[in-house]
Amino acid sequence: MDYVEMESYIRDYGEDLFCFCRSLTRSREETEDLYQETFLKLYELADKLEIRTNPKGCLMMISVNLYRNYKRKMAIRHRITGTAQSVADLPSSEPDASYHVLQAEEQQILLRAVDSLADRYRLPVLLHYMEEQPLEAVAAILKVPKGTVKSRLHRAKKILKRKLEDAHYERSYG
To answer: Whole-angstrom Cα distance, residue 58 to residue 23?
Structure first.
């Protein structure tokens, strides 16, 4: 992969990838690290990947794999030392421009509800509904069967429905 090709991927998919990384990590600093590491890994693996068929999906697959590796490493450190924080425990920094667009109260409640999902449900929701990846691409990115993606999306919708109903109840009557 040459410089021009890499630059075109950054230009064409950089903003979407950054927003996706932000959804994964929930922290500005972690987002920037994951974003940069994704493009470094792309450069490193460019000859081995079929990036031209689905560049955005390929970039997201790299991000998800790097994110999972980081979480695994942090969990091991936490078990060993008892002091490391997990990604979900990291404090969130100031919201960036993409979050200012979503200022309506219902959207914020929805985002918090999606954020509170376990990764096994949150990642398919982010990839399929927010990044508009087809089920086949989500399955390939997460390395699970398409049926598993469907069932996780179904389960995530049930969980989100319950959380949103609870939030509406608390807002109306709390």
So the answer is: 17
Query: What pTM did the predictor assign?
Result: 0.66
Q: Using alpha carbons only, give the angle 91, 96, 101 rounded to the nearest 5 degrees.
A: 125
- Rounded CA Rg of the chain: 17
Nearest residue to 54 via CA among 127, 114, 129: 127
Tokens of 147: 């049926």
What does the block give as tokens for 172?
């109306």
Rounded Cα–Cα distance for residues 118 and 115 (Å) = 8
43-83 pLDDT, tens digit each = 888 778 777 788 888 899 999 999 999 888 888 877 777 65
Measured between alpha carbons, how far is residue 29 from residues 26, 78, 171 in Å? 9, 20, 32
Q: Which long-range contacts (CB under 8 A, 24 or more apart) does 134-137 make?
A: 137/54, 137/57
Phi, psi dihedral angles at 134 (to 5 degrees): -65, 160
